[in-house]
Amino acid sequence: MSSKQVGLVGLWDCVAFDEVAGITFKDKDGVQIMKDYMASGSFARGKEEKAASASMAFVGNINQSVDVLLKTSHLFDPFPEAMAYDTAFLDRMHCYIPGWEIPKYRPESFTDGYGFITDYLAEFMRQMRKEPFGDVCDKYFRFGNNLNQRDVIAVRKMVSGLTKLLYPNGEFNKEDIKEILTFALEMRRRVKEQLKKIGGMEFYDVNFSYIDNETFEERYVSVPEQGGGKIIPEGMINPGNVYTISQGKSGMIGVYRLETQMLPGNGKFERTGLGSDRDAKEATNTAFNYLKANGNHISGQLSTTTKDYIINYQDLNGIGMTKYLTLPSVIALASCALNKPTLSSLAVLGEISISGTILKVEELASVLQVCLDAGAKKVLIPITSAAELGTVPSDLIGAFSLIFYSTPHEAVFKALGVE
Hints:
By secondary structure, the chain is an alpha/beta fold. It contains 13 helices and 16 strands. The termini are far apart.
């Protein structure tokens, strides 16, 4: 600032930060200044506001496998803490390139033929920055309603840049633009998926799509590492199997599957998959004790004295076991004992106390978003959470058939489809 000259962003077209984990700022307002610049292309130094046009690129390494990192944290985790959890900063990222998909250089990667020298190619790219290609997709497609203005800006910039690189002469067709648009939406959605992990419901709208202007067909674009398959399957599942969604030990919200077996015996109850988690074990004991006291009110066929039960609890997202297992266990045991499966694509929410008191769902909006991502189409939800639905986006509520219950007995009946 003392030299009264604009720094790197005013001199170059792109400024890259290598090894992002080591980024530090002498100025305590460094991250805020960077955020302002990334949003508006200008920054204040002293009393003056400076404008520049350089892009910013951040290069770094993830220290775990992608699937492990996604289960335990997020893809921006390598950034310094001041940046890694600043959603306002991260939301200004237009794209996240999956470096793990890019092959390493090999001898055969290099050509024996001619190519452009770096100076020439750089000058060509510099001149092409002046050509606006961001609206080339409008002729063929329009964006789905999950993209906000910042998403649209990011996707348009990527479409513009990729079109210039691949079709600098401006000759392209619908399929060419479709390929570019799909890639751009994936790159931006990867950013939003991480923001959803960090910031919760503020960034729930991640189901990016585009609509064909001719056929009006809407196509959704997924992120490969998130997994294309749904955790909660469609169709009937085996009796005794239950899917529940709640907060795990790590504080993150995840999906849990209960698989139950019933054997001739004298009323033993065994659990697997809980390890040494005392809270989870207490919740399952509460479930079995509740059935001992109230099983006859559900069905005369439900015996806790002449049968043995085994439930295997599975943490499907690897975020740590949940302690909210009493109601799901009651439903799983009843389903197995009566040999009646739960409703198709059902997610069970809520919890009960030892006395049968219904407890409301914490962070309902975020839990419902996880339900949607997991593939649930029906959600069993306590009536005590009905008042919280006002905090949930209407399109998220509309994605499910909500089934309310006011007692544990009613929860069992409705989960099994018994009126």
